Amino acid sequence: MASTDGKYNIKAIAKMLDLQPGTLRAWERRYQFIEPKRNQAGHRLYSEEHVLILKWLINKVNHGFPIGQAIDLLKKEQEPTSKLNVSTNEDYTVQLAEELLCALLSFNENQAQQLLNKAFSLFSFEKVSIEILEALLIKVAALWEEAQITKAHEHFVSTFIRVKIGQIYQGLPVNSFLPKVLLVCGPDETNDLQLLSFSLFLRRKGFSVLYLGEGIPAEDVELVLNETDASIFITSCTHEKNVAKTQKLLLTLEEKKRALTIGVVGAAFLQLQDKKWTRFLIEQNFEARDSWIKKIITDN
């Protein structure tokens, strides 16, 4: 039987279950299905039993049940909480991304907006950004490159995502004590969606970000770095044909600006094995990005 002792605060629960703290508070306030204990400071403390209950509810919601109906089902369950049938959220984020893509490829903006709202209500900002929005951008780019969708489809999907990212972007505060970051696509790169997603990740962390995207000549990058006093440079390389030019840019900047921190995102660099180049790589999962950022903050 699961322990009923208070063990986890709401921040730990939110991270464990990829559930927004505000959503959890709203569920508790409206349905009163669990009663967390409180510590001396009055903060909620959740038990292992609460975790099992929440996992069970999230699983039901992920399969289409309204939360009120899911809680009604929970109350009718005859099994003890230790035997509740629960599953992780991983499959549902994939499902949501696929449903969102289907809606957008059908030019159904209203349905797409509803699905995105649902994702943000259930999961953390980082999970939606990386596992749904960025995964969607990468898939759309691949479908376009493989001629499986038209330019009209690609443009509609990318515009929808850009607008949503832009709306989030503007409301994020900047920490003036963190270093400035310049983001520019690698030479001849035309797909800036992954770099755009990473710029949002950095803004979420409080960095001052100058995002220039695609079409910036390599010779202009050093000029912009000098004028903006940016101490971090991040570029992208998604096409294998552009790897050599991107490598040349990285070496040039590293030689001329030894204090500059350089990073690269993109599928083309993921294929490289030589440590001479993999040392620049920032993998696209949240843990890798977060670890890279923490190291940057420590070094600066």
Helix content: 55-70%
Q: Radius of gyration, Cα only, in angstroms?
A: 22 Å
Number of strands: 6
Order of helices and strands: HHEEHHHHHHEHEHEHEHHH
Sheet with the most strands? 4 strands, parallel
Distance between the termini: 48 Å
Indicate the structural class: alpha/beta
Outline the low-pLDDT stretches.
Answer: none
Query: What is the CATH class name of the largest domain?
Result: Alpha Beta
CATH superfamily of the largest domain: Cobalamin-binding domain
Task: State the strand order across the main sheet.
Answer: 4-3-5-6
Count the DSSP helices. 14
Predict the CATH topology of the largest domain: Rossmann fold
Q: What layout of secondary structure does this protein have?
A:
Layout: H1 10-17, H2 21-31, E1 37-38, E2 44-45, H3 48-62, H4 67-76, H5 90-105, H6 109-122, H7 125-145, H8 151-170, E3 180-185, H9 193-204, E4 208-213, H10 218-228, E5 232-236, H11 243-256, E6 261-265, H12 267-270, H13 275-278, H14 286-299
Parallel strand pairs: 3-4, 3-5, 5-6
Antiparallel strand pairs: 1-2
Helix pairs in contact: 3-4, 5-6, 5-7, 7-8, 7-9, 8-9
Descriptive notes:
With 300 residues, this protein is of the alpha/beta class. It folds into three domains: 10-83, Multidrug-efflux Transporter Regulator, Chain: A, Domain 2, CATH 1.10.1660.10; 90-169, Methionine synthase domain (Methyltransferase, Methionine Synthase (B12-binding Domains), Chain A, domain 1, Orthogonal Bundle); 173-299, 3-Layer(aba) Sandwich (Rossmann fold), CATH 3.40.50.280. 58% of the residues lie in helices and 9% in strands. It is built from 14 helices and six strands. The protein has helices spanning 10-17, 21-31, 48-62, 67-76, 90-105, 109-122, 125-145, 151-170, 193-204, 218-228, 243-256, 267-270, 275-278, 286-299; strands at 37-38, 44-45, 180-185, 208-213, 232-236, 261-265. The strands form two sheets. A four-stranded parallel β-sheet has the order 4-3-5-6, with helices on both faces. Strands 1-2 form a two-stranded antiparallel ribbon. Helix 3 packs across helix 4 (67-76), helix 7 (125-145) runs antiparallel to helix 8 (151-170) and helix 8 (151-170) runs parallel beside helix 9. The longest helix has 21 residues, at 125-145. It is globular and about 65 Å long. The relative contact order is 0.08. The mean pLDDT is 83.
